[in-house]
Amino acid sequence: MADYIEPLQKLAEQFGKLSGIGRKTAMRLAFSVLDMSEEEAAEFASSVIEAKEKIHLCPICQNLTDKEKCDICSDETRDRSVICVVEDAKAVIALENVREYNGLYHVLGGVISPMNGVTPEKLRIKELLTRLEDSEIKEVIIATNPTVEGEATSMYLSRLLKPAGIAVTRLAYGIPVGGDLEYADAVTLYRALEGRRDV
Predict the structure, then answer these.
(1) DSSP 180
(2) With 80 as the cut, is the pLDDT of residue 21 above it?
(3) In the chain, at which end, N or C, are there fewer CB atoms within 10 A of the end residue's CB?
(4) Which residues of the chain does CATH 3.40.1360.10 include?
(5) Quick check: 75 pLDDT over 70?
């Protein structure tokens, strides 16, 4: 029946464009929207539009923000001698939830993946190098996911940064290979931060 209702199909197709959403889940989400009241549906649609209009990249760390610069870069109490390099904004949230790291971040916007057409030039590495011109930076923690692509990105960054005389460390393995930081529990992330090592 749902296949013949064009607006429902269009809605499910839009949900299906979201990362990690399959056909069945997309259809369930579409039905969930239909179960909403007019007001709830309008608020839902408004939230999507507002997020797209207001959220942008922080000009310093490339994290998501709705302000001129993000709260972390604006916080003068943070340790400005350490930058933790992550793949995406989800990793920043995961590490912040541990409440043990007090340095700054840099969001690459992905990892090197030649198979997917992602070369170093497509990542925000140039912005990181610009930040490292600040003599205050003493350590860069590479916190990419422990996947083949994450490891390749880590090695690339290490080779790029070591000649600058900055300490380059990598999160210790407490996170399973193939896992994502956003799904790791706080204890695992804490141990990974505590046990980081030279690259």
Answers:
(1) -
(2) yes
(3) N
(4) 64-198
(5) yes
pLDDT digits (tens, 9 = 90+) for 170-184: 887 666 667 777 777
The pairing of strands 56-57 and 64-65 is antiparallel
Q: Which residues of 44-71 are buried (b: 16+ CB within 10 A; e: fewer)?
A: eeeeeeeeeeeeebbebbbbbbeeeebe
Q: Give 30-52 as a DSSP string.
A: HHHHHHS-HHHHHHHHHHHHHHH
Give the SS3 label for residue 142.
strand
Asked if 105 and 83 touch (Cβ cutoff 8 Å), the reply is yes
User: Given a cut of 80, is residue 140 above it in pLDDT?
Assistant: yes
What span, in angstroms and rounded, lies between the C-alpha atoms of 34 and 8?
Answer: 9
Number of Cβ within 10 Å of residue 134's Cβ equals 10
> What's the pLDDT at 107?
98
Q: Is there a contact between 158 and 168 (Cβ–Cβ < 8 Å)?
A: yes
Provide the whole-model pTM: 0.80
Q: Cβ(9)–Cβ(27) under 8 Å?
A: no
pLDDT in tens, 83-139: 999 999 999 999 999 899 999 999 999 999 988 999 999 999 999 999 998 778 999
DSSP 58-120: -TTT--EESSSS-HHHH-TTSEEEEEEEESSHHHHHHHHHHT---EEEEE-SS--BGGGTB-G
